[in-house]
Each structure stands twice: as structure tokens, then as C-alpha cells.
Amino acid sequence: MKNFDTMMYFITDSTNYSEEEFLHRVEEACKGGVTLIQLREKDRTTKEYLVLAQKVHEITQRYDIPLIIDDRVDVALAVNAEGVHVGQSDMPVKLARQLMGGDKIVGATAKTVPQALEAYEQGADYLGVGAIYPTTTKVKTVLTSVDTLKEIVKAVPIKVNAIGGLNKDNIHVLKNSGIDGICVVSAIMKADNPKAAAEELREAFHELQRN
Predict the structure, then answer these.
(1) For position 140, what pLDDT does the model report?
(2) pLDDT tens-digit profile of 100-137?
(3) CB of 84 within 8 A of CB of 104?
(4) Residues near 65 by Cβ (< 8 Å), separated by ≥ 6?
(5) What secondary structure does DSSP assign to 20-57, as a single string?
(6) Which of 91-105, 140-154, 169-183 has the lowest average pLDDT?
(7) Which among 70, 78, 66 has a CA at the least distance from the CA of 103?
(8) Which of 43, 176, 186, 201 has its CA 20 to 30 A from that of 168?
């Protein structure tokens, strides 16, 4: 399972959507070419999280896209998700790795080079670095400079993604940063057409790599 692509990493936000509309948007994003999906639910009960995770996993499996569960190792294990993502205030990477096993994906959030090195040494497979821009999600954000992002890319041998307020019109700031991909929430989740939004983001990222 370690052969995974973080180029177009979609993080979900079910706020203000019916379950039907939410699942529809997830599937449209899959059709649009996202390469990794993280289910992020901060306010659901464990049972609610489990039920939704199972439904999302059914969709992602159809498109052969790995599903990452935010924060909750128990939920990830229960639905046999492909991985888990832990933030700085969540379970330590080392413990998440022990619980998930060696064949699952473990991602971590890092905002500084020391945090990145610690996550890598504890067994993280990839890092989400940011926020590059202020975000509209409910997650508390601390801005990270592109210079710090570049330093993190150079410091660790694992995949590094930029995150935080990114969209097709502003990712040019990431040029020559050496990142493996971008993480987006609102750019796809709130788009009128999630499939088209994912396609446009893919093209914008390819353009970034070409120039």
C-alpha cells in the first residue's frame, strides 16, 4: 500500500451538506482525478464517523484511491482505511505507526523543520505543511512561509505536500518548492463542480511543475 501518490490530496469537509450531497461531491472529486482523500470529521461521534467512513471508503475503493482518516486511528482500523493522518496535537506518529502497522500510510502535519524531522524519524510516510494561506475551514491555522516549506522538503526524504487555502489561482507561489503535491479542502469541496475543480487543480499543478 506504500505506493501512493499525494499530488492531488483532497481533504473533505461535510459541514452544511446532506450526506447524499457530501458523498456525491466525494465521488465527483474522484472522477476529477484526486489521488488521495482524507476524511476529516471533527464533530461527529465515533459511530457517526464510522458509518460515514465506510460509505466514503466504498467510493474511494471503486476508484482505487487511498482513504486517509484524520486523527482517528480506531476509525481507520475499523473500516480498514489505507491510512491515518495525525496533527501536532493528535496521537504521536510513532504510536500511530505501531497501531496501524507497517503496510498502512501514516501522514503527519509539520510546520517547522524540527517537527518534520521528528515525524519522519517516528515513521511518517508523508507530511502536510502549512498553512500557506489563511483557510476557511474550522481547523486552527498557523501560517507557514514558502521558505520554510522549501527547507522541510530538503530536510526529509519523504513526500511533502503544501496545505492551507490553496487553489488553482494561487499555487504559483509554490513554484520551485520541490513539493510532491498539494492538499485542498474548499477549492474542491465548495466548488460548483467538484469534478471540474479537481481537473483544473491537477492541470495547474502540472503547469507549476513544468515551468
Answers:
(1) 65
(2) 999 999 999 999 999 999 999 999 999 999 999 988 77
(3) yes
(4) 30, 34, 35, 36, 37
(5) HHHHHHHHHHHHTT-SEEEE--SSS-HHHHHHHHHHHH
(6) 140-154
(7) 66
(8) 43
**C-alpha grid cell, residue 164:** 492551507
Predicted confidence at residue 134, as pLDDT, reads 87
Task: Identify whether the C-beta of residue 124 lies closer than 8 Å to the C-beta of residue 91.
Answer: no
Which grid cell sits at 184? 485542498
| Lookup: cell for 129 | 505543511
Which amino acid, residue 17? Answer: Y
What's the angle, vertex CA 181, arms to CA 18 and CA 114, rounded to 5? 105
Whole-number Å distance between alpha carbons of 170 and 115:
26
Quote the cell numbers at residue 183.
492538499
Instruction: Identify residue 142 by its one-letter amino acid code.
Output: V
